Amino acid sequence: MDHTRGARAIAETTTAALTARAVALTGSIAAGTDHPDSDIDLIAVADAPGETEIRSVEGRMVTIEWKTIDEVEAAFTRPWEAGAAVPGWRTAHLLSDPEGLLARVKASAETWNWHGIAAEADRWAADGIVGLAEEVHKVCGMLGRGNPRAAAANRAILALQLPGILAAADRILYRTENDLWDLVCEAEGEAWASAWDTATGTVRADPAEACRAGLRLYLIAAGRLDHVFTQAQRPVVETACRLAQRRR
């Protein structure tokens, strides 16, 4: 498609002007799933970590993430990054790689699987459910006080953060967040998909019902991770679940 070819040309021109050990085009443009307004994602390898740059080039947004090669490879060991990093590197286009650094990363991505970090993925997901218990308390409290905006803000946090947690628990790989939402809905089933659509406004609902849907998402996710909660975590989650059940 013309917009894909144009974006890749911008990526190559931008790469030529960078002082980097290696540069890769990632994201939807590399995968060929982009649309005319997709941003252009570049990962630039340097000797020291740097700030992410956001530029406008020929009317297109270009995001350049400066990372060391160690940071790039570490993503495969982190449950909160691996789900997106692995498929991202599988489809990445290497624009500059004189030392073969990113070719090594792509090769690792091709053979990667969740087995090596499965236990860590479950622990991280359980920690995430515990951390979001506070949002359940806030949603319930704000509904009780008649503060729909505050309740909606915390419901949105639940709806947007729980899918990433479940992606690790369900061992889901996704190229971008654009894929994440549908993949988690497919993995978790109709109850989750219905609640997520309501909580996010995909289907029309009044504010209180949308908040109750957000609470249902928490209950589903907590049930999914029930087998990995520690003795210290379980009372926190159970209390949040009781509150959610009352409002549900």
Radius of gyration: 20 Å
Quickly count the helices: 12
Tell me, rounded to a whole number, the average pLDDT: 95
> What letter string, H or E per element, gives the SSE order?
HEHEEEHHEHHHHHHHH
Give the strand order of the largest sheet, numbering strands 1, 2, ... along the chain.
3-4-2-1-5
What does the main sheet amount to?
5 strands, mixed
Portion in helices = 55-70%
> DSSP strand (E) fraction?
5-15%
Shape: globular
Distance between the termini: 46 Å
Structural class given helices, strands, pairing?
alpha+beta
Compact description:
The chain has helices at 2-16, 27-31, 69-74, 79-90, 101-111, 118-131, 133-144, 148-169, 177-188, 190-200, 207-224, 233-247, and strands at residues 22-26, 40-45, 53-57, 60-67, 93-96.
What does this structure look like?
There is one protein chain. The chain contains twelve helices and five strands. The termini are far apart. It folds into two domains: 2-112, Beta Polymerase, domain 2 (2-Layer Sandwich), CATH 3.30.460.10; 116-247. It is an alpha+beta fold. Strands 3-4-2-1-5 form a five-stranded mixed β-sheet, with helices on both faces. The radius of gyration is 20 Å and the shape is globular. Helix 7 (133-144) packs parallel to helix 12.
SSE layout:
Layout lengths: L1 H15 L5 E5 H5 L8 E6 L7 E5 L2 E8 L1 H6 L4 H12 L2 E4 L4 H11 L6 H14 L1 H12 L3 H22 L7 H12 L1 H11 L6 H18 L8 H15 L1
Parallel strand pairs: 2-4
Antiparallel strand pairs: 1-2, 1-5, 3-4
Helix pairs in contact: 4-5, 4-8, 6-8, 6-12, 7-8, 7-11, 7-12, 8-9, 8-11, 9-10, 10-11, 11-12
